Backbone:
């Protein structure tokens, strides 16, 4: 993977499969009444074909797709 295709968090840190990230802003989850609060830790992320998105599971919400601009690597 070259630098142009690298998946990066809000601070520009490169993300990889299996990394842990933290939410930097409260996010409402479409289709549920749940909200991901700022500071929520999400473990074991999976990269997608789109470099601006990752797949993950958080607390009681399975199959989330989040934008990397709202995440920072822990």
Residues:
């Amino acid at each position: 993977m070259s630098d142009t295709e690298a998946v990066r968090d809000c601070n520009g840190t490169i993300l990889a499969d299996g990394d842990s990230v933290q939410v930097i802003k409260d996010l409402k989850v479409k289709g549920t009444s749940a909200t991901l609060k700022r500071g929520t830790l999400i473990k074991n992320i999976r990269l997608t074909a789109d470099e601006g998105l990752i797949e993950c599971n958080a607390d009681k919400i399975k199959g989330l797709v989040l934008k990397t601009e709202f995440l920072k690597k822990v």
